[in-house]
Amino acid sequence: xxxxxxxxxxxxxxxxxxxxxxxxxxxxLNVTHQAVSKWENGLALPDVQTLMNLADLFGVSIEQILSGxxxxxxxxxxxxxxxxxxxxxxxxxxxxxxxxxxxxxxxMSRDKLExxxxxxxEGELCWEHLVSLAPFLSQEARDRAFEKxxxxxxxxxxxxxxxxxxxxxxxEKAIDLVAEGELCEEHIVSLAPFxxxxxxxxxxxxxxxxxxxxxxxxxxxPFLGPDFIEKLVFGKARSG
Length: 240
Fold this sequence. Notes:
By secondary structure, this protein is mostly helical. It has 16 helices and no strands.
């Protein structure tokens, strides 16, 4: 499994080696300095998009970040290959462990990883697995795993986290399936760049009028037509 403390220590080392403050790194990644502090203290892990941005910022691979900067020796790669072969053998009898795949993903070929992910039974795969595995999967494989997850309860926090990696039509269907009352303004503003205007309007329509504030309108304005924004503004004025 990925050790958040090891990952955090490596992120801290990369930042210090680049002579950056937490605030400077946060600004480059478009996150808060509190988020950077949580990563470096091992209290949280960056989401998949931020992992990719971190890798680009410091000129390292996602594999290096997730392994805490350890380079993989030939011996380790041979060991991983043996582990993978055993994992795929178990897969043929329906025994794929998605937690194990998260650990192996940085060392596996995309083809073998995708075959293994496809073999994970529906009840065993969770949103955390997809968030961790998404950078290593093709678009088609991400969508298949995403659809498998959407057969159960849809968590809008995790949908928001994997949105950059999921096809628009599947993302829109998932948002429609989020339970009433679970979708909030933050989810909608974050998801707006990844869904169509019709789906976005449906999502906005599920938010109570008194929750729609100026910040939300500003965030949604580039993605919704002026007529719809005016309806929201005047509707809010009438409800107020």
